[in-house]
Amino acid sequence: MKALFRVSVALLYCLFSISISWADGFPVDKVYHPYVLANERELEWRLTSRQNDGGNVLAQRLAYGHSVSEYLTIEGYIVGERDDTGDFGLQAYEIEMRWMLTDQGELWADWGMLFELEKQHKEDTYEFTSGLLFEKEFTQTSLTINALLVYEWGKNIRNEFETELRLKYRYRYLPALQPSIEIYTGEDFIGVGPGFMGVHRYEGQKQLKWELAFIAGLNGDAKDHTLRFALEYEF
């Protein structure tokens, strides 16, 4: 009953968030799963490269995370981006918290929540993201959905709410190779494309995960595609 109550509150929050607005930002990024492992520690590297009519945007993230309980994990990021002159440097800092609302298999689907605070390097610009994480297994396939609310504020930007939706439908063919279809939406962006992920397990909780996806924008630009890649080592 406690898990059902937490999920009900999270769903009400999500419905309120979606009614505010559609995002005008760029939503292609990691599709989060709602799971947390007790005593989990992880190192993560993510790369996103977007090529469109305006040029190429390259971003990388390095992170370290640690679970503080069997339901809650906290992760810190440093974010680097390539600027208009081609120089690559520190762009932002992030602190992220994932909360597993239900035990795996406890309800008809598995639920979690995400909270993330980002500050731009050397700027008084902030972004707070929160949202609902959903995953449901159908025989050998899994559907994962992230419904996110983003609030931006600072001295040099307009204070505003945005929303993002990320979806992954995955076929668990083998632990080391799991193809998927990914969908991302925002006010000025709809993207879809193939993805792949895999897991190599070592002894105990040690495992290495990888993800690769190529997302094509369907929002009318002559050229708009994104490559995203991630490595995550859990120990």
The end-to-end span amounts to 32 Å
Broad CATH class: Mainly Beta
Estimate nothing, just give the exact number of structural domains: 1
| Mean pLDDT metric | 89
Structure description:
- With 235 residues, the chain is mainly beta.
- It has a single domain, classed as monomeric porin ompg (Porin), CATH 2.40.160.
- The protein has 1 helix and 12 strands, in the order H-E-E-E-E-E-E-E-E-E-E-E-E.
- The chain has one helix spanning 2-18, and strands at residues 41-52, 55-67, 72-82, 88-100, 110-120, 125-138, 141-154, 160-171, 178-186, 189-201, 207-217, 224-234.
- A 12-stranded antiparallel β-barrel has the order 1-2-3-4-5-6-7-8-9-10-11-12.
- The two termini are 32 Å apart.
- Mean pLDDT is 89; it is low at 8-12 and 15-24.
Would you summarize the structure shown here?
The protein is mostly beta strands and 235 residues long. Helices cover 7% and strands 61% of the residues.
Record keyword descriptors for this entry.
235 residues, mainly beta
Which helices and strands appear, and what pairs or packs with what?
Blueprint: H1 2-18, E1 41-52, E2 55-67, E3 72-82, E4 88-100, E5 110-120, E6 125-138, E7 141-154, E8 160-171, E9 178-186, E10 189-201, E11 207-217, E12 224-234
